């Protein structure tokens, strides 16, 4: 209000253009520095050490889209002699605050050894990691970005029942690339008020652009369910919101992952615009045995666990982890290593939570 009432010439610096002012306004858009300019800014900020970091600086500029002020702030905040590792971590910290105000950050040390999936699904996940590692070389050095700016974003759909490894796979990809992972609940982002969903999505993507964090959108079907015939203004705006998110995903410099328990409920027109689709199946008995084999940390004391008997429990990997954790607490309280009776008690609790009967076929001779 004061801006409109005062007759004094003003210079206003904002992240987004001001279109709500009635007084005469001249807008000057100041773009972020190009990658070449960012690289030069890093060389000036780091000093002589930059000469030995040629490859690393290119990787840094490809990942973090910083202003010159942010580059100086990041370099100045480094303690002691900067290293490639410390500089990368400092960039993650610099890019984190804006997005952290909008979505929870997931921290994990998960690796490929922690997930059990069929070979085709593992191949797709490893391919996603390849695209993340090499996008700077392919897009910039090899000229693909010069041909077209469309479709350069890395987008994926992870579909499958709860507990089959969708979030774990996102954690592994983020940890492999040393990137932050943020979870965005789409059911909370979607608003009944026209235009608000688009504003919420814009805030998330704008905040994420600096650091190219991995974005995990849960409950994709909350927004991307099969689009019905447009009957009113709300239906039209819902389609606008879907189109907006697809456009931002296709242009996003990081990896955007959507998850759903009901792939069949998603519109095929939406699915065609995603680069990767990974179907996470319910684990069969052999896969469940492998999950049980890996589920306990090396430090956990165990005694005479029957993996074959445990694998008969027809449950997902997420439920297996819950049973293993509850059994570990029971064993610790008894001052014993984890044994089959502890796991049986934990399995009964898990099945009660699932409101699912523990059948004789699953128990076999296990009592």
Summarize the structure.
51% of the residues lie in helices and 8% in strands. It has 18 helices and 6 strands. It starts with a helix and ends with a helix.
Question: Which descriptors apply to this entry?
Answer:
alpha/beta, Helicase, Ruva Protein, domain 3, Rossmann fold, six-stranded mixed sheet, globular, 367 residues
Computed over alpha carbons, the radius of gyration is 25 Å
H-E string: HHHHHEHHEHEHHEHHEHEHHHHH
Task: Give the CATH topology of the largest domain.
Answer: Rossmann fold
Largest sheet: 6 strands, mixed
Instruction: Estimate the strand proportion.
Output: 5-15%
Distance between the termini: 74 Å
The overall pLDDT average reads: 86
Spatial ordering of strands, largest sheet = 1-3-4-5-2-6
Poorly predicted residue ranges: none
Structural class: alpha/beta
CATH class of the largest domain: Alpha Beta
Count of runs of 4 or more consecutive helical residues? 18
Shape assignment:
globular
Instruction: Kindly state the number of beta strands.
Output: 6
Question: In percent, how helical is the residue content?
Answer: 40-55%
Instruction: Please give the domain count.
Output: 3
Q: Which architecture of the largest domain would the CATH scheme give at its second level? A: 3-Layer(aba) Sandwich
């Amino acid at each position: 209000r004061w801006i409109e009432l005062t007759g004094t010439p003003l210079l206003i610096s904002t992240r987004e253009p001001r279109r709500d002012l009635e007084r005469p306004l001249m807008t000057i858009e100041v773009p972020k520095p190009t990658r070449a300019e960012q690289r030069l800014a890093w060389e000036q900020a780091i000093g002589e050490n930059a000469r030995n970091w040629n490859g690393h600086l290119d990787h840094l500029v490809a990942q973090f889209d910083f202003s010159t002020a942010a580059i100086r702030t990041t370099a100045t905040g480094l303690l002691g002699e900067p290293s490639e590792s410390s500089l990368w971590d400092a960039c993650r910290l610099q890019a984190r605050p804006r997005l952290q105000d909008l979505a929870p950050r997931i921290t994990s040390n998960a690796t490929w050894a922690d997930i059990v999936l069929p070979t085709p699904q593992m191949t797709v996940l490893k391919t996603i990691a390849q695209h993340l590692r090499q996008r700077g070389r392919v897009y910039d050095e090899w000229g693909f970005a010069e041909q077209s700016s469309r479709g350069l974003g890395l987008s994926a759909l992870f579909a499958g029942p709860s507990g089959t490894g969708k979030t774990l796979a996102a954690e592994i990809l983020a940890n492999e690339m040393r990137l932050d992972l943020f979870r965005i609940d789409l059911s909370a982002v979607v608003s009944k008020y026209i235009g608000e969903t688009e504003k919420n999505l814009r805030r998330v993507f704008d905040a994420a652009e600096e650091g190219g964090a991995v974005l995990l959108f849960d409950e994709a079907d909350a927004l991307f369910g099969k689009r019905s015939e447009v009957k009113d203004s709300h239906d039209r705006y819902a389609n606008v919101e879907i189109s907006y998110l697809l456009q931002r995903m296709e242009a996003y410099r990081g990896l955007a992952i959507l998850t759903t328990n009901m792939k069949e409920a998603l519109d095929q027109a939406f699915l065609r615009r995603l680069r990767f689709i990974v179907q996470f199946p319910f684990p069969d008995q052999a896969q469940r045995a492998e999950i049980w084999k890996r589920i306990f940390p090396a430090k956990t004391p165990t005694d005479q666990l029957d993996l074959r008997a445990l694998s008969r429990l027809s449950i997902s990997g997420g439920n297996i982890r819950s049973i293993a954790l509850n059994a570990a607490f029971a064993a610790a309280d008894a001052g014993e290593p984890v044994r089959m009776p502890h796991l049986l008690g934990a399995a009964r609790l898990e099945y009660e939570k699932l409101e699912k009967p523990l059948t004789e076929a699953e128990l076999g001779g296990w009592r």
